[in-house]
Amino acid sequence: MKKNKPQIIAFNKIGSSELGYITIAEEQKNVPFDIQRVYWTYYTPQDVIRGGHAHKKLQQVIFAVSGVITFNTEDKEGNKETFVLDHPTKGLYLPELIWRDIKFSHSAVLLCLASELYDEKDYFRDFEEFKNYVP
Ligand code: TYD
C-alpha cells in the first residue's frame, strides 16, 4: 500500500453467521505501523461532528466496530474524500497531515489504532494553520 494517502484497508474475518466473527489487526502486517496507543469512542450523539483536526506525525487505522462512521477528509493540497466505515472489517488508514470531520450513527463505536502516544502538540485544530504548514 502507498502510505501517503487515506485509504480503506480490508481486514479478513474468520467465522460464520452461526458462530459470529473475529477480525485481527497486527502491527506491520495488516497495520502499516507500530501501534503505540489504542482508544475508542462511544455514545457520540448523531447530530455532533467530531474531529475537526489533523496531525503532524500521527498515523491511524480506524474501525467502526459497531454502527456506521463517516469520515470526510482533506489533504493539504485540497483533495477531499469521503469514507464510510459500515462494516467491522473496514479499517481507514489515515497518514499524517489529513484533516478530518467525523459523523457517527446511533450507537456507533470507533476503535483507533495509533502510531504515537497522545501529544496535544501533534494536533492542528485550526484549518488555516494546517493548510499553511510547511513540513
Ligand atoms: P480529540 O482527538 O479532539 O477527539 P475527536 O477527534 O473525537 O473529537 O480528543 C478529545 C479529547 O480527548 C481532547 O480533550 C483530547 C483528549 N484525548 C486524550 O487525552 N488522549 C487521547 O489519546 C485522545 C485521542 C484524546
From TrEMBL:
What is the name listed in the Swiss-Prot or TrEMBL entry for this protein? WxcM-like, C-terminal
Record InterPro entries: QdtA_cupin_dom (IPR008894), RmlC-like_jellyroll (IPR014710), RmlC_Cupin_sf (IPR011051)
Gene3D superfamilies assigned: Jelly Rolls (2.60.120.10)
Source organism, top-level taxon: Bacteria
- Specify whether Magnesium is a keyword of the entry: no
Q: Which organism is it from?
A: Chryseobacterium contaminans
What GO annotations for molecular function exist for this entry?
Answer: isomerase activity
| Residue span, Sugar 3,4-ketoisomerase QdtA cupin domain | 6-134
- Keywords assigned: Isomerase
Q: Name one Pfam family in it.
A: FdtA
UniProt keyword RNA-binding, yes or no:
no
